[in-house]
Amino acid sequence: MQKEDLARDPKMTNPLVLAFLGDATYAHCVRYHLIARGMVKPNQLHKEANRYVSAKAQANILLTLMPTLTEEELGVVKRGRNAKSGSTAKNADIIDYRHATAFEALIGYLYLSGREERVAEIMQQAFAIVEGVSGHE
Questions:
Q1: Which fold has domain 14-131?
Q2: What letters, b where the CB count within 10 A reaches 16 and e where it falls short, cover 9-20?
Q3: For the chain, which ranges sit under pLDDT 70?
Q4: Each residue of 100-115: pLDDT tens digit?
Q5: Of residues 5, 9, 23, 96, which has the active-site annotation?
Q6: Residue-by-residue DSSP string for the chain
Q7: Which of 9, 49, 112, 114 is the most buried (most CB within 10 A)?
Q8: What is the pLDDT of residue 17?
Q9: How high is the pLDDT of residue 12?
Q10: Angle between helices 71-82 and 15-36 (to 10 degrees)
Q11: Angle, nearest 10°, between helix axes 94-112 and 15-36?
């Protein structure tokens, strides 16, 4: 199935569906990034990946990137943050959980919109934020 068949208009897609896709996209990119950095031990990969994909990390990424986002992207973030999911945060406070959902919705939206270059740009910035590298803005 083509992406175009999946969602004709990402702007009309439920933000929780965008977050579902964004979560998988982000996790995939994180895993690829860690393996590309030379990590090969499964336990090490799992622990390190958690540093990137936790709600707290994703919330921090989003809040750091907010000033650099376009109006369109900020609109998606707002929709994602305000979406009422049926689940609750397991290991995060509700504010971090909502911001993480908003970050995932943004990634899902950009991916569905075919904006892979922008996804890659945000991924690079996200990794730099988590790794504490300066010059990510």
A1: Ribonuclease iii, N-terminal Endonuclease Domain; Chain A (1.10.1520)
A2: ebeebebbbbbb
A3: 1-8, 88, 134-137
A4: 999 999 999 999 999 9
A5: 23
A6: --HHHH-S-GGGS-HHHHHHHHHHHHHHHHHHHHHHTT---HHHHHHHHHHHHSHHHHHHHHHHHGGGS-HHHHHHHHHHHH---SS--SSS-HHHHHHHHHHHHHHHHHHHTT-HHHHHHHHHHHHHHHHT-S---
A7: 112
A8: 95
A9: 86
A10: 110
A11: 90
CA 43 to chain centre: 23
The structural domains of the chain, with segments of one domain joined by +, span 14-131
The pair of three-digit structure tokens given for residue 103, joined into one six-digit string: 């970050």
Say if residues 130 and 53 touch (Cβ distance below 8 Å).
no
Catalytic residue flag (residue 23): yes
* pLDDT score, position 90: 75
